[in-house]
Amino acid sequence: xxxxxxxxxxxxxxxxxxxxxxxxxxxxxxxxxxxxxxxxxxxxxxxxxxxxxxxxxxxxxxxxxxxxxxxxxxxxxxxxxxxxxxxxxxxxxxxxxxxxxxxxxxxxxxxxxxxxxxxxxxxxxxxxxxxxxxxxxxxxxxxxxxxxxxxxxxxxxxxxxxxxxxxxxxxxxxxxxxxxxxxxxxxxxxxxxxxxxxxxxxxxxxxxxxxxxxxxxxxxxxxxxxxxxxxxxxxxxxxxxxxxxxxxxxxxxxxxxxxxxxxxxxxxxxxxxxxxxxxxxxxxxxxxxxxxxxxxxxxxxxxxxxxxxxxxxxxxxxxxxxxxxxxxxxxxxxxxxxxxxxxxxxxxxxxxxxxxxxxxxxxxxxxxxxxxxxxxxxxxxxxxxxxxxxxxxxxxxxxxxxxxxxxxxxxxxxxxxxxxxxxxxxxxxxxxxxxxxxxxxxxxxxxxxxxxxxxxxxxxxxxxxxxxxxxxxxxxxxxxxx
Length: 482
Ligand code: GAP
What we know:
This protein is an alpha+beta fold and about 475 residues long. The protein has helices spanning about 35-45, 65-85, 110-115, 115-120, 190-195, 200-205, 250-265, 320-325, 355-365, 400-410, 425-435, 445-450, 470-480; strands at about 45-50, 60-65, 95-100, 120-125, 135, 165, 170-175, 185, 210-220, 235-245, 275-280, 290-295, 305-315, 335, 340, 345-350, 365, 375, 390, 415-420, 440, 450-455, 460-465. The protein has a seven-stranded mixed β-sheet.
């Protein structure tokens, strides 16, 4: 099947064309403070440190009410874009991609076959002087905890050990007896579950190569140095799609997915200047990978540089070949038309869902001295955790009842919140920090003229619209972005 680098034609409504973007005037990420972003996340219920009342747990985070909604919205947009309404090929035919939800703990032979037991290691060094531990391949990025502060290894008292390989998989035991035979692993990537079910899907779903299998879910890595908020954590979520194709067509599909994935991130309102591709050098390719390119984002802690957001890898036939060998099950594909039997190649767009949330949080964070909150979160309306706030101007004169009715009319279609407490300025400020794109206020004129004010988050401008047109207005704004 032919494929090209062109962004696909628009169809299937809002999620299909990558032409839908919010107008972003990108603020230089280097001017944004991670401390401020983390503080807002805590204050507004996006992200909390896990087990905080017990002092937290390094590398683990909880997603609060707004963070969960934001994460779900990002996940749903990806799923819609991959599975429910997948991209079109250049001839205008929808690609075939099916969904999966496989177990987190798989037969441990999975990880022997995949190479994770032997090769999923990070080199680690310890400092005998300051007792800190660093990833040897990232040593330039760390500071020694001793004062005066210097780069790791550069302090007079630093005495680094030789690098040691450290396997990143979390171990657990199945059943009552904790011995070698009972050892199992929490999955370090969602991808392997897809390879294990590849045959089941070919046998049951009438899919023909090329086709894809998509999965979203938790992954676990015992990272040597979790850091930068939710960027590198020990428990996180991934959104991965394995695209099975004929080996001769793999290079074309690699280019196709590369462009698709960049287009999708841009469609969420991430400014073009904060995104870029970076090809992996030969010596940094993962053990399964023939080629790999990262979609990178300019995080406040990497700026002016970039850091990984998603990887698009050409995995060749590595995984299916390995699982065929280790399981002794035939995983070849038989092409009825071409009368050919082969192991498909795989192109894998693999992104972090929780890392994507971090990108949305960093990108949305917009300092603004002109408003009481001094900051607002400029989420694309499609992704905003709350789509609209509904406020009676005062908590009397029939206004709460009209606001309540509006809320009841909207809540089935949109995630909306009614708020009757505090003065209107404070309610706007709360919604600005939550990134709510619209606030509808019921006031005296609503009762006489059946209109409400709508306040736009980004401009703070207000206009009046008919009360019975609020749902239509919201629908249009969310589909199109502001
Ligand atoms: N199946 C291929 C794979 O897992 P990866 O580059 O190791 O590839 C894919 O992971 C994506 O998962 C990364 O681009 C990143 O967004 C996310 N990710 C990986 N490790 C992570 C961690 N410790 N914390 C948060 N996200 C992580």
